[in-house]
């Protein structure tokens, strides 16, 4: 009958096996997320070049590229108030090589105004990181004879239905700001939707549109004297433009049309990839040149936890739901 091994012998065998076990563990093949990124990453921007989303995307990608060790390339996919870019994102592989930079409105508000999206942003997208809180600014073409909000409202009332304003698309924060303004001021004007802020800005500058609610790109034209800035559509004045009054203090109490822009990934993207992207965006938002670009839009950098960014979306949807119902806004 074989004798039982001694306790000391068992201990020696157990200890001897530890290095072997560790070697096996380290020899396991790396997962795809461990190797990510091995090639350039595409950042879909779901609005046209020249708009706030495009400017923000091009501001953060150089630092993201440096941190991640691969190029992060902006790919503009405008149309349908951001739906085209969102749709392409959610149909992409869940491997971290396709990301989305979008306005919060396109993600939060579009489900209220489109009956056939073809995707569910609450289920098909992961909110990864907020980038900036984008404000809207009431600006007019210089041909409009108004120096302040009160005079502008009087001018609109004297010309009911004759003035037009543009926006990056139906349901965008500039569009909703325009509708909020019309109802609060009791005026009538025509909304003209575009495939992004850039084309709308072009037509305000040319005089084809008389005014708009600018998400930021038009501020440089204000500095150049090509547009007139009357007010900001935020609850408080901007520290960047302390002399510009809010619409709330200009006779329209409670006016708030701010929107949070951020980066999203297709649902199912590995958590380590999400964390790596978040880290690269956090680093970008620390760079002075990036902060300067964001401030140049009149916007505010918005670093926050992923949980807070996720929680923002239902709050934003609730904030605009009554207005959308009141005006009967449906695109399809």
CATH fold annotation of the largest domain: D-Maltodextrin-Binding Protein, domain 2
Q: What is the number of helical segments per DSSP (H or I, 4+ residues)?
A: 14
Tell me what the CATH architecture of the largest domain is. Answer: 3-Layer(aba) Sandwich
Strand order of the largest sheet: 2-1-3-10-4-11
The level 1 CATH classification of the largest domain is: Alpha Beta
Alpha-beta content class: alpha/beta
How many separate domains make up the residues? 2
Silhouette: globular
Straight-line N-to-C gap: 85 Å
Compact overview of the structure:
With 332 residues, the chain is an alpha/beta fold. The protein has helices at 7-27, 32-35, 52-68, 83-91, 104-108, 110-113, 121-124, 149-158, 173-185, 197-206, 219-223, 271-284, 288-296, 306-327; strands at residues 41-45, 72-76, 98-103, 125-134, 137-140, 164-167, 190-193, 211-214, 228-232, 259-266, 300-301. Helix 3 packs antiparallel against helix 13 (288-296).
Secondary structure layout plus pairing:
Elements: H1 7-27, H2 32-35, E1 41-45, H3 52-68, E2 72-76, H4 83-91, E3 98-103, H5 104-108, H6 110-113, H7 121-124, E4 125-134, E5 137-140, H8 149-158, E6 164-167, H9 173-185, E7 190-193, H10 197-206, E8 211-214, H11 219-223, E9 228-232, E10 259-266, H12 271-284, H13 288-296, E11 300-301, H14 306-327
Parallel strand pairs: 1-2, 1-3, 6-7, 6-8
Antiparallel strand pairs: 3-10, 4-10, 4-11, 5-8, 5-9
């Amino acid at each position: 009958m074989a004798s039982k091994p001694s306790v000391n012998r068992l201990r020696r065998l157990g200890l001897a096996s530890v290095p072997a076990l560790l070697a096996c563990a380290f020899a396991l093949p790396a997962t795809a997320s461990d190797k990510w990124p091995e090639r350039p990453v595409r950042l879909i921007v779901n609005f046209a070049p020249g708009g706030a989303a495009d400017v923000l995307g091009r501001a953060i990608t150089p630092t993201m590229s440096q941190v991640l060790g691969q190029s992060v390339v902006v790919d503009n996919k405008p149309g349908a108030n951001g739906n085209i870019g969102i749709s392409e994102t959610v149909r992409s592989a869940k491997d971290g090589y396709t990301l989305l930079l979008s306005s919060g409105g396109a993600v939060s508000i579009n489900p209220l105004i489109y009956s056939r999206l073809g995707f569910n942003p609450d289920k098909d997208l992961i909110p990864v990181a907020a980038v900036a809180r984008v404000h809207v600014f009431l600006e007019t073409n210089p041909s409009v004879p108004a120096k302040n909000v009160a005079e502008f409202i009087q001018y609109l009332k004297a010309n009911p239905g004759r003035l037009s304003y543009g926006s990056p698309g139906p349901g965008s924060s500039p569009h909703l700001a325009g509708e909020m303004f019309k109802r609060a001021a009791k005026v009538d004007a025509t909304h003209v939707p575009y495939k992004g802020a850039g084309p709308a800005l072009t037509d305000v500058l040319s005089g084809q549109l008389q005014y708009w609610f600018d998400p930021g790109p038009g501020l440089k034209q204000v500095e150049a004297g090509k547009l007139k800035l009357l007010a900001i559509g935020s609850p408080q004045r901007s520290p960047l433009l302390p002399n510009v009054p809010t619409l709330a203090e200009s006779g329209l109490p409670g006016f708030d049309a701010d929107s949070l822009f951020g980066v999203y990934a297709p649902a199912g993207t590995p958590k380590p990839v999400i964390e790596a992207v978040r880290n690269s965006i956090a680093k970008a938002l620390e760079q002075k040149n990036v902060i300067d670009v964001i401030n140049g839009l009149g916007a505010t950098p918005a670093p926050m936890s992923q949980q807070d960014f996720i929680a923002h979306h239902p709050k934003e949807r609730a904030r605009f739901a009554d207005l959308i119902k009141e005006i009967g806004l449906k695109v399809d």
